[in-house]
Amino acid sequence: MGDADTQRDEELLVASGDQAVEFVAFYDRAMPGLLGFFARRTFDAQIAADLTAETLADAFASRHRFRDRGDGSASAWLYTIARRKLGRFLRRRRVEDTARRRLGIERLELGLDDIDRVEALIDFEQVGRAVTAAFDELRRDQREALRLRVIEGRSYAEIAGALGCSEDVVRARVSRGLKRLATQLDG
Q1: How far apart are CA 37 and CA 53, in angstroms?
Q2: pLDDT (tens digit, 9 = 90+) per residue, 51-80?
């Protein structure tokens, strides 16, 4: 097949030889980008590492479904898996956080043996500065809605009461604020 550094993603995913060995090359190539993707969205090295591993495990299990769209890159396919994995994680976490708060239980932080390696790949200080700068660029009403919803975890009804507007207005502010943040951070 050739040197893994010069092989296209397609060649690594649909290799006819030792598929596990070929996938390791794909894993090594994709892992740093995925780790950064998840770290920018979760701000937690352990969660970013876990989601990266889960995404790549799903990619390995479903590699037979990859279809090359002409350039040999699997990025769009892989990041579709990653976005779905992140969405499921965030929904599950929201449910768990609600139940945990209702019961008055603190969140447990677990250790990770490879935390130094993960943090070496991601500059969390730089990510934090970028998020702060992007947050400061939002309109004041969007910043306030996001602060109350995302940071304080308040319900849309509570936020609407605090801001003196409807829940639909709050949902629109949060949605638009998140989209603008994502655009600024991905740019």
Answers
A1: 13
A2: 998 988 888 887 777 666 665 567 778 888
Q: Which residues are CB-contacts of 141 (< 8 A; sequence separation ≥ 6)?
A: 163, 173
Q: Which residues contact 23 (CB under 8 A, 6 or more apart)?
A: 12, 13, 15, 60, 63
CATH of domain 1-122: 1.10.1740.10
Backbone angles phi, psi at 72, to 5 degrees: 80, 0
DSSP 3-state of 68:
coil
Nearest to 156 by CA among 178, 141, 172, 140: 172
Domain spans in the chain, listed from the N-terminal domain onward? 1-122, 123-187
CA 40 to chain centre: 7
Domain 123-187 is found in CATH 1.10.760.10: no
Over residues 137-148, the pLDDT tens digits come to 999 999 999 888
CA atoms within a 13 Å half-sphere pointing along the CA-CB vector of 34 = 30
Structure-token match 């740019």, residue found: 187
* Interhelix angle 124-137/167-186, nearest 10 degrees: 130
pTM of the model: 0.50
